[in-house]
Design goal:
Structural class: alpha+beta
Number of domains: 1
CATH topology: OB fold (Dihydrolipoamide Acetyltransferase, E2P)
Mean pLDDT: 82
Order of helices and strands: HEEEHEE
Helix content: 25-40%
Number of helices: 2
CATH architecture: Beta Barrel
Strand order of the largest sheet: 1-2-3-5-4
Length: 120
């Protein structure tokens, strides 16, 4: 066995293990939460961040376990303003909504950001 072959035979398993570990660290959409039901509360803040509570929820990501029924929307963006419009309409009419979370709490407050809202 030559020197290059011995060096490669050692490095390939080590690199494979490193790649496997790195792949496990990539967040997956399966970590995102979901919920359905009536909106039970709403809080709007001066900075454009809005919260709402939903009666039912499943698959809460680890970053949102402190407030598992609460969702957050950044209404300072056009997309967030559209989501907030749906939330307020459903809240005012007492309609049921289905919410899919983004899986992250980057907006803060230990609350998962909304990815999309479906009004059945």
């Amino acid at each position: 066995m030559n020197k290059v072959h011995r060096m490669l035979s050692f490095k390939l398993p080590a690199l494979s293990l490193l790649y496997a570990i790195l792949i496990c660290l990539i967040p997956s959409p399966a970590a995102a939460g979901a919920g359905g039901g009536q909106i039970t509360g709403y809080i709007g803040q001066f900075n454009g961040i809005a919260f709402f509570n939903l009666a039912g929820r499943s698959d809460v990501p680890s970053c949102a376990t402190s407030y598992p029924n609460r969702w957050i929307v950044d209404a300072t963006t056009p997309a967030g303003a559209a989501l907030l419009s749906s939330v307020l309409t459903a809240y005012a009419l007492g309609k049921t909504v289905n919410v899919q979370g983004s899986g992250d709490c980057r907006l803060g407050y230990s609350t998962e950001a909304v990815s999309y809202i479906y009004l059945p």
